[in-house]
């Protein structure tokens, strides 16, 4: 991702100190190590998951042939043979979402605990902040790839239809032990979402807040709004921007910024778009609009379609028109 990135967040919110956030080379301190190592085990597999998803081609051709010639046993077998290993992949992606959720909850626990403020946490625990950013970056990349691949849902619904037909006819189904009915139901709900990973993370964050009643909700929402500001400042300030040696760094920061905005919008009672929000939404949208359009359309769509409060009456007309 290029050389050392250090960001001075001068203009975060009123309670923010001057601090640098090193998204690139931050190393865990002793106190971070336990959580860091747990999360690292999960993050190590993230790139492989994305590669598998990127190369996911689907069994559309075999499925069409089988549907058009229902009496041709050979074609039925061929379609089933093509779909079963693909469903194995989909199961792997779904199981990874569960691991990612657990990792996120561990990070939230560490980054919101008392007695430190969210800003102090991000300043002191930069390696954990970087892992949090990496989870969001992965999540948005996963969902962008999933949204543009209709084969995933087609393959899975064909698999389920065929499986129930086999059950009715008492045909032993190889591959059924891969995905039993209960798991198939959960996977079906997961893949029915436009942005399944984001939904998993926002549900996990909401659940984290409701289960930790002794923790003020602001600890979580301020952690998210501070991260959003860090990314925005990094992107809109030429002197920081000029330190990026790799274009990837820009897309990393953009994705992380959008990810924390969406989480904030799901967790905060009035969301990210209200006047009282601690996120400078106009500034964040402007940063997105200043990028080459084809590189951020997916992120603008994520703000349009996966946030919760955009269409509330409290959202200013100006913000709505910026996102039109």
UniProtKB/TrEMBL annotation:
Membrane-protein topology: Lipid-anchor
BP-aspect Gene Ontology terms: cellular response to molecule of bacterial origin; negative regulation of actin filament polymerization; negative regulation of small GTPase mediated signal transduction; positive regulation of memory T cell activation; positive regulation of T cell mediated cytotoxicity; positive regulation of type II interferon production; regulation of cell migration; regulation of chemotaxis
Domain CYRIA/CYRIB Rac1 binding per the UniProt entry, residue ranges: 19-320
GO molecular function: MHC class Ib protein binding, via antigen binding groove; small GTPase binding
Gene Ontology CC, one term: cilium
UniProt keyword list: Lipoprotein, Membrane
InterPro entries reported in the protein's UniProt record: CYRI, CYRIA/CYRIB_Rac1-bd
Cellular localisation: Membrane
Keyword flag Lipoprotein: yes
Domain of life, per lineage: Eukaryota
Subunit structure: Interacts with RAC1 (GTP-bound form preferentially).
Similarity annotation: Belongs to the CYRI family.
Protein name, as recorded: CYFIP related Rac1 interactor B
């Amino acid at each position: 991702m290029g050389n050392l990135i250090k960001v001075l967040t001068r203009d975060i919110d009123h309670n923010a100190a001057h601090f640098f956030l090193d998204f690139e080379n931050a190393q865990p301190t002793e106190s971070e190590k336990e959580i860091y190592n747990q999360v690292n085990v999960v993050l190590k597999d993230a790139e492989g998951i994305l590669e598998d998803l990127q190369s996911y081609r689907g069994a559309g051709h075999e499925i069409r042939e089988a549907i058009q010639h229902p009496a041709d046993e050979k074609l039925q077998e061929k379609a089933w043979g093509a779909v079963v290993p693909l469903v194995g992949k989909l199961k792997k992606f779904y199981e990874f979402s569960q691991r990612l959720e657990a990792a996120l909850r561990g990070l939230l626990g560490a980054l919101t605990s008392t007695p430190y403020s969210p800003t102090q946490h991000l300043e002191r625990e930069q390696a954990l902040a970087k892992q949090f950013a990496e989870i969001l970056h992965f999540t948005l990349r996963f969902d962008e790839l999933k949204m543009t691949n209709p084969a995933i849902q087609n393959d899975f619904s064909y698999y389920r239809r065929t499986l129930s037909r086999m059950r009715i006819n008492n045909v032993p189904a190889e591959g059924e032990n891969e995905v039993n009915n209960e798991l198939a139901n959960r996977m079906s709900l997961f893949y029915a979402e436009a942005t399944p990973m984001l939904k998993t993370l926002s549900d996990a964050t909401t659940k984290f807040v409701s289960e930790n009643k002794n923790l003020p909700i602001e600890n979580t929402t301020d952690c998210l709004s501070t991260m959003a500001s860090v990314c925005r400042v990094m992107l809109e300030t030429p002197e920081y921007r000029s330190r990026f040696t790799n274009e990837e760094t820009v897309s990393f920061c953009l994705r992380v910024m959008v990810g924390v905005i969406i989480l904030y919008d799901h967790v905060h009672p009035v969301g990210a778009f209200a006047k009282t929000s601690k996120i400078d939404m106009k500034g964040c949208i402007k940063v997105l609009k200043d990028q080459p359009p084809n590189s951020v359309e997916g992120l603008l769509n994520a703000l349009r379609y996966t946030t919760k409060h955009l269409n509330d009456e409290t959202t200013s007309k100006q913000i709505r028109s910026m996102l039109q």
